Amino acid sequence: MTTIAAPVRRPSPQLAVLRTEARLLLREPGSLFWVLAFPSLLLVILGSVPSFRRIDAGLGGVRLIDVYVPVLVLTAQIVTGLQAMPPIITGYRERGILRRMSATPVRPSALLTAQMGLNGATGLVSALLCLTIGRLAFDVHLPGQLAGYVLALLLAAAAALALGALVSAVARTARLATAIGMVLFFPSLFSAGLWAPVQAMPHVLREIVVVLPFGAATRALDQAATGHWPDWSHLGVLAAWTIVLSAAAARWFRWE
Q: What's the pTM?
């Protein structure tokens, strides 16, 4: 009797790339610290300041720590998009990995998709940590409008990744990608309200900030946190920036 062996199922190339990139990410404790631990650690430091736990009439009767939780949730997305992802993708291109992948069944786009997916997921986990610590340690209310909060957070993460993809597209080396990311990093944190809450900024500056992706994201997250549906203008700004940045990244990206 002839025995026919069952065909061996091999994982898809895309899944294999995803697993490999996940293992490599877990071997980078420095990158994981800045994405996962830094926003939460900063939240603990700010929440330990007594003035941050007092009600501020200038902020509409809420505490500074209540305002800063959405800001630090957004900080995690900015760190992911501008600091974690661009040096890795640019390094792959600089070392010729993307070019060599073009001659294999695994397309370079699979690696880029895996990188964006893993970094996006890491940023969202960091956001969840900030929300959990804020609730348990400082009695910060969970988002009152959960659906609006999730939508704003996903759009903010997409905008941050699109900006990181653009940096990866224009930078020729990993070192240059790090430098460009750093140049954009601090203005992004400022527009998100890390140094001064967007609500407390002078009127003219606030009107400028809210047409930038992370200024609009902060306002949308803050509105959803207090139980209101985010203004469609803020969500529209986020969506528009994501589309424009993604189109520019696709236009200028090179595999080698």
A: 0.89
